[in-house]
Protein backbone atom coordinates (compact mmCIF):
# COMPACT_ATOMS: atom_id res chain seq x y z
CA UNK A 1 0.00 0.00 0.00
CA UNK A 2 1.31 3.45 -0.90
CA UNK A 3 1.64 5.55 2.27
CA UNK A 4 -0.29 8.77 2.62
CA UNK A 5 1.84 11.81 1.87
CA UNK A 6 2.11 15.00 3.91
CA UNK A 7 2.92 17.96 1.65
CA UNK A 8 2.93 21.73 1.90
CA UNK A 9 0.97 23.94 -0.42
CA UNK A 10 2.93 25.87 -3.03
CA UNK A 11 5.05 28.78 -1.89
CA UNK A 12 3.01 31.27 -3.88
CA UNK A 13 -0.28 30.26 -2.29
CA UNK A 14 0.95 30.02 1.29
CA UNK A 15 3.08 33.17 1.19
CA UNK A 16 0.13 35.17 -0.13
CA UNK A 17 -2.14 34.06 2.70
CA UNK A 18 0.53 33.98 5.43
CA UNK A 19 3.01 36.86 5.14
CA UNK A 20 3.94 35.98 8.73
CA UNK A 21 4.84 32.38 9.64
CA UNK A 22 2.11 31.88 12.21
CA UNK A 23 1.52 28.50 13.81
CA UNK A 24 -1.89 28.30 12.13
CA UNK A 25 -0.42 28.72 8.63
CA UNK A 26 -0.72 25.37 6.81
CA UNK A 27 2.86 25.35 5.56
CA UNK A 28 4.12 26.01 9.11
CA UNK A 29 1.82 23.52 10.84
CA UNK A 30 2.47 20.78 8.25
CA UNK A 31 6.20 20.97 8.87
CA UNK A 32 6.29 21.40 12.63
CA UNK A 33 4.02 18.39 13.30
CA UNK A 34 6.77 16.16 11.85
CA UNK A 35 9.36 17.10 14.48
CA UNK A 36 10.74 14.27 16.60
CA UNK A 37 13.76 13.52 18.71
CA UNK A 38 16.14 15.73 20.61
CA UNK A 39 15.65 18.59 18.15
CA UNK A 40 11.87 18.49 18.49
CA UNK A 41 11.69 21.95 20.11
CA UNK A 42 13.20 23.75 17.13
CA UNK A 43 10.76 26.44 15.96
CA UNK A 44 12.91 28.13 13.35
CA UNK A 45 11.27 31.26 12.01
CA UNK A 46 7.85 30.85 13.64
CA UNK A 47 6.12 34.23 14.13
CA UNK A 48 8.58 35.94 11.82
CA UNK A 49 8.08 37.33 8.31
CA UNK A 50 8.06 35.00 5.31
CA UNK A 51 10.96 36.07 3.10
CA UNK A 52 10.96 34.72 -0.45
CA UNK A 53 14.28 34.18 -2.25
CA UNK A 54 13.85 35.34 -5.85
CA UNK A 55 17.44 35.35 -7.13
CA UNK A 56 19.85 32.47 -7.68
CA UNK A 57 22.85 34.78 -7.34
CA UNK A 58 25.44 34.10 -4.65
CA UNK A 59 24.72 37.50 -3.11
CA UNK A 60 22.74 40.67 -3.69
CA UNK A 61 19.07 41.63 -3.49
CA UNK A 62 16.69 38.68 -3.45
CA UNK A 63 19.46 36.13 -2.79
CA UNK A 64 19.53 33.53 -0.02
CA UNK A 65 22.71 35.05 1.40
CA UNK A 66 21.03 38.45 1.60
CA UNK A 67 17.98 36.97 3.32
CA UNK A 68 20.18 35.31 5.95
CA UNK A 69 22.25 38.46 6.44
CA UNK A 70 19.15 40.52 7.21
CA UNK A 71 17.47 37.95 9.49
CA UNK A 72 17.49 39.97 12.70
CA UNK A 73 14.82 37.89 14.42
CA UNK A 74 12.50 35.01 13.55
CA UNK A 75 12.54 34.60 9.75
CA UNK A 76 10.95 31.93 7.57
CA UNK A 77 12.74 31.73 4.21
CA UNK A 78 11.07 30.21 1.14
CA UNK A 79 11.83 30.23 -2.59
CA UNK A 80 9.99 31.76 -5.54
CA UNK A 81 10.99 29.09 -8.06
CA UNK A 82 13.29 26.17 -8.77
CA UNK A 83 16.87 27.39 -8.61
CA UNK A 84 20.52 26.34 -8.42
CA UNK A 85 22.72 28.65 -6.36
CA UNK A 86 26.48 28.49 -6.96
CA UNK A 87 28.05 29.55 -3.68
CA UNK A 88 31.40 31.31 -3.40
CA UNK A 89 31.57 30.66 0.35
CA UNK A 90 29.63 29.09 3.19
CA UNK A 91 26.27 30.58 4.20
CA UNK A 92 25.86 31.39 7.91
CA UNK A 93 22.45 30.59 9.40
CA UNK A 94 21.52 32.69 12.48
CA UNK A 95 19.12 31.84 15.29
CA UNK A 96 15.36 31.52 14.79
CA UNK A 97 15.52 30.88 11.05
CA UNK A 98 13.82 28.32 8.82
CA UNK A 99 15.18 27.66 5.33
CA UNK A 100 12.24 25.91 3.67
CA UNK A 101 12.77 24.55 0.16
CA UNK A 102 9.45 22.72 -0.09
CA UNK A 103 7.55 23.23 -3.29
CA UNK A 104 10.62 23.90 -5.45
CA UNK A 105 13.83 22.15 -6.47
CA UNK A 106 16.52 24.17 -4.69
CA UNK A 107 20.19 23.22 -4.97
CA UNK A 108 23.26 24.78 -3.36
CA UNK A 109 26.48 24.05 -5.26
CA UNK A 110 30.08 24.26 -4.09
CA UNK A 111 29.55 25.08 -0.42
CA UNK A 112 27.02 24.64 2.38
CA UNK A 113 25.51 25.97 5.60
CA UNK A 114 27.22 26.92 8.86
CA UNK A 115 25.15 27.01 12.07
CA UNK A 116 27.40 28.54 14.73
CA UNK A 117 26.21 29.43 18.21
CA UNK A 118 22.63 29.52 16.93
CA UNK A 119 19.39 28.54 18.67
CA UNK A 120 16.26 27.16 16.98
CA UNK A 121 17.12 26.52 13.35
CA UNK A 122 15.20 24.42 10.81
CA UNK A 123 16.61 23.47 7.40
CA UNK A 124 14.43 21.39 5.09
CA UNK A 125 14.19 20.25 1.47
CA UNK A 126 17.48 21.44 0.00
CA UNK A 127 20.08 19.69 -2.12
CA UNK A 128 23.71 20.58 -1.29
CA UNK A 129 26.49 19.32 -3.57
CA UNK A 130 30.05 20.32 -2.71
CA UNK A 131 31.39 19.15 -6.09
CA UNK A 132 34.52 17.92 -4.22
CA UNK A 133 35.97 21.36 -4.73
CA UNK A 134 36.68 22.49 -1.16
CA UNK A 135 37.12 21.29 2.41
CA UNK A 136 33.96 22.75 3.85
CA UNK A 137 30.86 20.89 5.07
CA UNK A 138 27.35 20.62 3.72
CA UNK A 139 25.87 21.37 7.17
CA UNK A 140 28.12 22.29 10.10
CA UNK A 141 26.38 22.58 13.50
CA UNK A 142 28.97 23.92 15.93
CA UNK A 143 29.98 26.29 18.72
CA UNK A 144 27.18 25.69 21.19
CA UNK A 145 24.26 25.60 18.75
CA UNK A 146 21.05 24.05 20.05
CA UNK A 147 17.53 23.11 18.97
CA UNK A 148 18.40 22.34 15.36
CA UNK A 149 16.37 20.23 12.93
CA UNK A 150 17.87 19.11 9.60
CA UNK A 151 15.17 17.42 7.50
CA UNK A 152 14.74 16.06 3.97
CA UNK A 153 18.12 17.14 2.68
CA UNK A 154 20.21 15.65 -0.13
CA UNK A 155 23.90 15.98 0.77
CA UNK A 156 26.91 14.84 -1.26
CA UNK A 157 30.50 15.39 -2.44
CA UNK A 158 32.42 17.47 0.09
CA UNK A 159 36.12 17.27 0.98
CA UNK A 160 35.28 17.38 4.70
CA UNK A 161 32.17 15.92 6.33
CA UNK A 162 28.63 16.19 5.04
CA UNK A 163 27.34 16.95 8.53
CA UNK A 164 28.94 17.77 11.88
CA UNK A 165 27.47 18.29 15.33
CA UNK A 166 30.31 19.44 17.56
CA UNK A 167 31.89 21.94 19.97
CA UNK A 168 29.20 21.91 22.63
CA UNK A 169 26.18 21.76 20.32
CA UNK A 170 23.12 19.80 21.43
CA UNK A 171 19.46 18.96 20.89
CA UNK A 172 19.70 18.18 17.19
CA UNK A 173 17.54 15.96 14.99
CA UNK A 174 18.53 14.81 11.51
CA UNK A 175 15.67 13.11 9.66
CA UNK A 176 14.78 11.82 6.20
CA UNK A 177 18.11 13.02 4.77
CA UNK A 178 20.05 11.30 1.98
CA UNK A 179 23.83 11.14 2.39
CA UNK A 180 25.63 9.82 -0.67
CA UNK A 181 28.77 9.79 -2.84
CA UNK A 182 31.05 10.86 -0.04
CA UNK A 183 33.92 9.61 2.12
CA UNK A 184 33.70 10.69 5.79
CA UNK A 185 30.01 11.39 6.17
CA UNK A 186 29.12 12.50 9.69
CA UNK A 187 31.00 13.38 12.85
CA UNK A 188 29.11 13.71 16.12
CA UNK A 189 31.71 15.47 18.27
CA UNK A 190 35.27 16.05 17.19
CA UNK A 191 38.68 15.28 18.72
CA UNK A 192 40.55 18.58 19.02
CA UNK A 193 43.38 17.68 21.41
CA UNK A 194 46.01 14.99 21.91
CA UNK A 195 44.20 14.40 25.20
CA UNK A 196 41.13 12.52 23.95
CA UNK A 197 38.95 13.76 26.79
CA UNK A 198 40.19 17.36 26.98
CA UNK A 199 36.78 18.67 25.90
CA UNK A 200 34.65 15.94 27.44
CA UNK A 201 32.65 18.26 29.72
CA UNK A 202 31.82 20.55 26.80
CA UNK A 203 30.90 17.85 24.31
CA UNK A 204 29.23 15.24 26.51
CA UNK A 205 26.12 17.44 26.66
CA UNK A 206 25.40 16.67 22.98
CA UNK A 207 22.06 14.98 22.34
CA UNK A 208 21.37 13.97 18.74
CA UNK A 209 18.62 11.94 17.07
CA UNK A 210 19.07 10.35 13.64
CA UNK A 211 15.99 8.76 12.08
CA UNK A 212 14.86 7.61 8.64
CA UNK A 213 18.07 8.77 6.98
CA UNK A 214 19.49 7.07 3.89
CA UNK A 215 23.25 6.54 3.72
CA UNK A 216 24.12 5.12 0.29
CA UNK A 217 27.35 4.79 -1.69
CA UNK A 218 29.42 6.30 1.10
CA UNK A 219 32.72 5.13 2.56
CA UNK A 220 32.57 5.53 6.34
CA UNK A 221 31.27 7.46 9.41
CA UNK A 222 27.55 6.85 8.99
CA UNK A 223 28.01 8.29 11.67
CA UNK A 224 31.11 8.36 13.87
CA UNK A 225 29.96 9.34 17.38
CA UNK A 226 31.68 9.98 20.68
CA UNK A 227 31.06 11.60 24.09
CA UNK A 228 27.37 12.58 23.74
CA UNK A 229 23.94 10.91 23.90
CA UNK A 230 22.63 9.56 20.62
CA UNK A 231 19.45 7.88 19.38
CA UNK A 232 19.60 6.20 15.97
CA UNK A 233 16.46 4.51 14.71
CA UNK A 234 15.05 3.44 11.35
CA UNK A 235 18.08 4.58 9.35
CA UNK A 236 19.13 2.72 6.19
CA UNK A 237 22.82 2.13 5.45
CA UNK A 238 23.45 0.73 1.98
CA UNK A 239 26.67 -0.18 0.16
CA UNK A 240 29.27 1.53 2.33
CA UNK A 241 32.80 0.84 1.06
CA UNK A 242 34.83 0.73 4.31
CA UNK A 243 32.57 0.59 7.38
CA UNK A 244 29.10 1.68 8.50
CA UNK A 245 28.85 3.22 12.00
CA UNK A 246 31.41 3.93 14.71
CA UNK A 247 30.99 4.58 18.43
CA UNK A 248 33.50 5.17 21.21
CA UNK A 249 34.81 7.36 24.04
CA UNK A 250 31.76 7.01 26.29
CA UNK A 251 29.14 7.91 23.73
CA UNK A 252 25.77 6.77 25.09
CA UNK A 253 23.80 5.39 22.18
CA UNK A 254 20.50 3.61 21.57
CA UNK A 255 20.80 1.93 18.16
CA UNK A 256 17.50 0.35 17.16
CA UNK A 257 15.52 -0.63 14.11
CA UNK A 258 18.22 0.34 11.63
CA UNK A 259 18.70 -1.51 8.34
CA UNK A 260 22.15 -2.48 7.05
CA UNK A 261 22.28 -3.57 3.42
CA UNK A 262 25.55 -4.37 1.67
CA UNK A 263 26.83 -6.74 -1.03
CA UNK A 264 30.30 -8.27 -1.17
CA UNK A 265 30.33 -8.27 -4.97
CA UNK A 266 29.46 -4.90 -6.50
CA UNK A 267 31.06 -2.15 -8.52
CA UNK A 268 32.76 0.71 -6.76
CA UNK A 269 31.17 4.11 -7.36
CA UNK A 270 33.92 6.21 -5.80
CA UNK A 271 35.90 8.72 -7.85
CA UNK A 272 39.52 7.82 -8.53
CA UNK A 273 40.40 9.71 -5.36
CA UNK A 274 38.71 11.73 -2.61
CA UNK A 275 40.45 14.95 -1.52
CA UNK A 276 40.61 15.14 2.28
CA UNK A 277 41.31 17.82 4.86
CA UNK A 278 44.47 15.91 5.79
CA UNK A 279 45.84 16.55 2.30
CA UNK A 280 45.78 12.87 1.43
CA UNK A 281 44.05 11.66 -1.71
CA UNK A 282 42.39 8.32 -1.04
CA UNK A 283 40.16 5.66 -2.56
CA UNK A 284 38.57 2.77 -0.65
CA UNK A 285 37.38 0.49 -3.45
CA UNK A 286 39.75 -2.29 -2.36
CA UNK A 287 37.84 -2.66 0.92
CA UNK A 288 34.48 -3.49 -0.67
CA UNK A 289 34.85 -7.31 -0.38
CA UNK A 290 35.20 -7.01 3.42
CA UNK A 291 32.97 -3.98 4.04
CA UNK A 292 29.73 -5.93 4.50
CA UNK A 293 31.21 -7.54 7.62
CA UNK A 294 31.84 -4.07 9.05
CA UNK A 295 28.33 -2.72 9.49
CA UNK A 296 30.12 -0.93 12.32
CA UNK A 297 33.61 -0.82 13.72
CA UNK A 298 34.08 -2.74 16.93
CA UNK A 299 33.11 -0.65 19.92
CA UNK A 300 35.94 1.81 20.61
CA UNK A 301 38.04 0.67 17.65
CA UNK A 302 38.34 4.05 15.93
CA UNK A 303 40.28 5.57 18.82
CA UNK A 304 41.53 2.41 20.53
CA UNK A 305 45.19 2.66 19.60
CA UNK A 306 45.41 6.35 20.38
CA UNK A 307 43.66 5.71 23.70
CA UNK A 308 46.17 3.00 24.61
CA UNK A 309 49.14 5.13 23.57
CA UNK A 310 48.10 8.20 25.60
CA UNK A 311 46.24 6.70 28.57
CA UNK A 312 49.20 6.77 30.95
CA UNK A 313 50.21 10.30 29.99
CA UNK A 314 46.76 11.83 30.50
CA UNK A 315 45.51 9.53 33.29
CA UNK A 316 42.19 8.84 31.60
CA UNK A 317 39.26 8.09 33.89
CA UNK A 318 36.89 7.45 31.00
CA UNK A 319 36.32 4.35 28.90
CA UNK A 320 37.50 4.07 25.29
CA UNK A 321 34.28 2.21 24.48
CA UNK A 322 30.76 3.59 24.04
CA UNK A 323 27.85 2.60 26.25
CA UNK A 324 25.41 0.89 23.91
CA UNK A 325 21.89 -0.52 23.70
CA UNK A 326 21.55 -2.38 20.39
CA UNK A 327 18.23 -3.94 19.43
CA UNK A 328 15.95 -4.94 16.59
CA UNK A 329 18.33 -4.09 13.73
CA UNK A 330 18.04 -5.79 10.33
CA UNK A 331 20.88 -7.04 8.12
CA UNK A 332 20.23 -7.60 4.40
CA UNK A 333 22.25 -9.31 1.66
CA UNK A 334 25.81 -9.81 3.00
CA UNK A 335 25.70 -7.30 5.87
CA UNK A 336 26.73 -8.69 9.27
CA UNK A 337 26.05 -7.44 12.81
CA UNK A 338 28.94 -6.06 14.83
CA UNK A 339 27.58 -3.83 17.60
CA UNK A 340 26.52 -5.36 20.92
CA UNK A 341 25.17 -4.02 24.19
CA UNK A 342 27.86 -2.61 26.45
CA UNK A 343 27.09 -1.28 29.94
CA UNK A 344 23.54 -0.72 28.74
CA UNK A 345 22.45 0.69 32.11
CA UNK A 346 24.48 3.83 31.32
CA UNK A 347 22.40 4.63 28.22
CA UNK A 348 19.60 6.99 29.31
CA UNK A 349 16.04 6.33 28.10
CA UNK A 350 14.90 8.79 25.45
CA UNK A 351 12.68 11.51 26.94
CA UNK A 352 10.24 11.70 24.02
CA UNK A 353 7.76 9.64 22.02
CA UNK A 354 8.73 8.74 18.46
CA UNK A 355 7.19 7.07 15.41
CA UNK A 356 9.09 3.79 15.26
CA UNK A 357 8.83 1.21 12.49
CA UNK A 358 9.83 -2.43 12.83
CA UNK A 359 12.65 -2.79 10.27
CA UNK A 360 11.80 -4.67 7.09
CA UNK A 361 12.60 -4.62 3.37
CA UNK A 362 9.41 -2.60 2.89
CA UNK A 363 10.62 0.05 5.35
CA UNK A 364 13.96 0.12 3.52
CA UNK A 365 12.12 0.79 0.25
CA UNK A 366 10.14 3.58 1.91
CA UNK A 367 13.33 5.26 3.13
CA UNK A 368 14.89 4.97 -0.34
CA UNK A 369 11.83 6.61 -1.84
CA UNK A 370 11.26 9.46 0.57
CA UNK A 371 14.63 10.33 2.14
CA UNK A 372 16.32 13.31 0.53
CA UNK A 373 14.98 16.42 -1.13
CA UNK A 374 11.74 14.69 -2.06
CA UNK A 375 8.21 15.82 -2.71
CA UNK A 376 6.63 14.32 0.38
CA UNK A 377 6.92 12.44 3.65
CA UNK A 378 5.09 9.19 4.34
CA UNK A 379 2.51 9.34 7.10
CA UNK A 380 4.06 6.78 9.41
CA UNK A 381 1.94 4.05 10.97
CA UNK A 382 0.89 4.53 14.56
CA UNK A 383 3.72 2.64 16.25
CA UNK A 384 4.75 5.33 18.66
CA UNK A 385 7.29 4.40 21.31
CA UNK A 386 7.37 6.39 24.53
CA UNK A 387 9.56 6.38 27.64
CA UNK A 388 8.09 5.12 30.91
CA UNK A 389 5.55 7.63 32.12
CA UNK A 390 4.97 9.06 28.64
CA UNK A 391 6.92 11.82 26.97
CA UNK A 392 6.56 14.56 24.43
CA UNK A 393 6.83 14.25 20.64
From TrEMBL:
Cofactor annotation: Ca(2+)
Xref: InterPro entries: AmbAllergen (IPR018082), Pec_lyase (IPR002022), Pectin_lyas_fold (IPR012334), Pectin_lyase_fold/virulence (IPR011050), PEL (IPR045032)
UniProt pathway annotation: Glycan metabolism; pectin degradation; 2-dehydro-3-deoxy-D-gluconate from pectin: step 2/5
Region Disordered: start-end pairs: 373-393
One Pfam family per UniProt: Pectate_lyase_4
Alphabetical UniProt keywords: Calcium, Carbohydrate metabolism, Lyase, Metal-binding, Polysaccharide degradation, Secreted, Signal
Enzymatic class: lyase
Statement: the UniProt record of this protein carries the keyword Lyase: yes
Name used for this protein in its record: pectate lyase
GO biological process terms held by the UniProt record: pectin catabolic process
Family statement: Belongs to the polysaccharide lyase 1 family.
Key word Signal present: yes
A GO term, aspect molecular function: pectate lyase activity
Pectate lyase domain mapped to chain residues: 82-266
Cellular location(s): Secreted
Chemical reaction(s) catalysed: Eliminative cleavage of (1->4)-alpha-D-galacturonan to give oligosaccharides with 4-deoxy-alpha-D-galact-4-enuronosyl groups at their non-reducing ends
Compositionally biased spans, kind Polar residues: 374-385
Record-listed E.C. numbers: 4.2.2.2
A GO term from the CC aspect: extracellular region
